[in-house]
Amino acid sequence: MELIKVDGLVKKYNEKTAVAGITLSIEKGELFGLLGPNGAGKSTTISMLAGLVKPTSGSIHINGADISKHPIEGKKRIGLVPQEIALYPTLSAVDNLRFWGRMYGVTGKRLKERVTEVLRIVNLEDRKNQIIKSYSGGMQRRINIAAALIHEPEILIMDEPTVGIDPQSRNYILETVKELNGAGITVIYTSHYMEEVEFLCTKIAIVDDGKIIAMDDKENLKKTMLDGEVIDIRLSEISPELVKSLHGLEAVRHIQQNDYDLSLSVNDADQALTDILTVISGHQARIVQMKVEEPNLESVFLKLTGKALRD
Q1: What pLDDT does residue 311 have?
Q2: pLDDT, tens digit, for every residue of 18-37?
Q3: Cβ neighbours for 203, distance < 8 A, ≥ 6 positions apart
Q4: Would you say 246 and 252 are in contact if contact means Cβ atoms under 8 Å apart?
Q5: What mean pLDDT, rounded, does the chain reach?
Q6: Distance separating alpha carbons of residues 103 and 117, to the nearest angstrom
């Protein structure tokens, strides 16, 4: 079921175009990743989806409703975790959550229950009465997530939620995102950390220069954009006859040779390995080292843009 539909989204600031015609759809319950370098237009797109920035042109529909015509209804459905910490540093975690709950119209007994629930989700019940400025960066990030969940949104938008935090807090946040999605929340996750998007997301859009340059399910994206898997083999010796025999295998698409190193591009490494090992054994060559490199998002991004993600 399509929950979010974005059509021809454009945002211009004077002469600068930050978003240049983004079109996408997100299914209910999906964990959707927006992947791109700094300045690619991710945060601007997120701000428009959350109703914080008005598009220059284009439309955003949530559950069939145009959020330009029904902005309040759209915002009720969304919880936003901004890139910057959106908390009052001199207030405690509980007071921050009560404030944001009331801003969303959550009051009374339900507000008290939700504060307890979101503190449990981010595992900070025991620090709830301490002021935010006494928290570590990772703890502040977790309360930032709690504040976005206080009104029970069906869509959670997370804009670079792990920037500048320690590895332990980062891993906790990533696992929390997976659990929230498993509980039925639709998640839109933006990052320029390739490994986060690869770990979390099932569907991915790669954004560069304000445009989507590729979008598909994660595995389809890797398979269609790259030439399968690569098997790197170092041998004790290599003869022309051995290389010719490997070229003759149906599973082998391409071979690169550098002295005693071979890189074989194959469609399916599991199926190809048996035939490759049989050929090598038949030519009485000894394998010194071997590894299989699966297609990854980093390789996809390099192929599409010609640059590393953090460039």
Answers
A1: 47
A2: 999 999 999 999 999 998 88
A3: 26, 27, 30, 31, 32, 33, 215, 216, 217, 218
A4: yes
A5: 90
A6: 18
| Nearest CA-CA partner of 31 in 206, 203, 152 | 203
Tokens of 310: 């953090």
Instruction: Provide the residue type at 284 as one letter.
Output: Q
Full-model pTM: 0.80
Residues 6+ apart with CB under 8 A from 132: 85, 87, 88, 89, 90, 91, 92, 93, 96, 140, 143
In sequence order, what are the residues at sequence separation of 6 or more whose Cβ sits closer than 8 angstroms to the Cβ of residue 129?
A: 92, 93, 94
Phi, then psi, of 295 in degrees rounded to 5 = -60, 140
CA distance 28 to 30: 6
**Per-residue pLDDT tens over the stretch 242-263:** 999 998 998 888 888 888 898 8
Q: CA neighbours within 13 Å on the CB side: how many for 55?
A: 27
Contact 142, 122 (CB under 8 A): yes
Give the model confidence (pLDDT) of 131-167 as tens digits: 999 999 999 999 999 999 999 999 999 999 998 888 9
pLDDT in tens, 78-137: 999 999 999 999 999 999 999 999 999 999 999 999 999 999 999 999 999 999 999 999
Question: Beta strand pairing status for 31-35 and 186-191?
Answer: parallel
